Amino acid sequence: MEKNVDLFTDGACRGNPGNGGWGVLLRYGGHEKELYGGERETTNNRMELTAVIMGLKQLKRPCQVRITTDSRYVMQGATEWLEGWKRRNWRTAAKKPVLNQDLWREFDCLAAEHEIDWRWVRGHSGHPENEKADRLANRGIDEMTA
Fold this sequence. Notes:
By secondary structure, the chain is an alpha/beta fold. The protein contains four helices and five strands; from the N terminus they run βββαβααβα. The N and C termini lie far apart (42 Å).
C-alpha cells in the first residue's frame, strides 16, 4: 500500500435541512482532481460525510489516505463511534438508531480498503485546501439550484 493520497473534504447546506453540496479536492503526486455535487433537502452532516465517500470512491486500489476535514461529526464518527454503532447493531449508546446510517455503512465498506489518517482543521480559518473544498461544496449547491 504505497500510494499516498490526500483528500480535503467539505460539506455545505443552505438551511439545515435544505439544499446542500459537497466538495472534494483529491491530491496524488503532482495531480489534483476536484469533485463536487449537490442534493436537495439534506443536512450539513450528510454532505460532510458524502464528500468523504465520494473522495474514497475515486480510489481504484488500496491507498494510504490522509483525509482533512472541518467536520468533527465525520472524524469522530469514523474514529470513535463507528465500531460501537456496529457492535450495537447500528444503535447509539442511547439505543437510538444511528443517523445517516446509509452513508455510514457505505463509508465503512469503502474505508475498509484503505489505511486512513484523519486530520481536523477549523473551518473558514484560511486553510487553503479546506477553503477550496468549501468553494466546491457551494458550487455543488449553486449548479443544482441554477
